[in-house]
Amino acid sequence: MARLCFDYGHGGSDPGAVYMGRRESEDVLAVGREVAGILRCHGVIVDETRTSDVSLSLKDRCDFENMGSFDYFISFHRNAFKPETAAGVETYTYLNPSGKSKDLAEKIQNALVGVGFADRGVKEANFHVLRETKAPAVLIEIGFIDNSRDNALFDNKRADIASAIAKAILTHL
Is 141 a catalytic residue? Predict the structure, then answer.
């Protein structure tokens, strides 16, 4: 069965993006753990870089993945820009992505758009966790934490979001 490494962005002394008391690190830990639970029910092995509100460096996250033998590395995040100006979901791969990571990113992106997020597309970026991990990697930005509509969607459809991501991963596997 497939073995995945889930990375929940930020944590501990690094809350990530914060808006009106809401912390990215808490949002992504909650939804990511829900996705992990669904996948485990389907026999997928999911290891997590963190399971509580602790600080991890980017190097620690990559070292954790690189010490294992994972089929994929998936990093969960929420976006931020200027309050109430940007909205939607985007999924990243590393520059010149492998077919595996690009295909997974497209499936996850389409699934989240299907839940109701605006489609900001699949993009390539030179993010540390995409560049320094061995397994095909994707980074998901699940809506903008500084957008009230995205937050309402995140809160009201969190189970749907977790289910959509899990279904996209299962379909890909």
Answer: yes
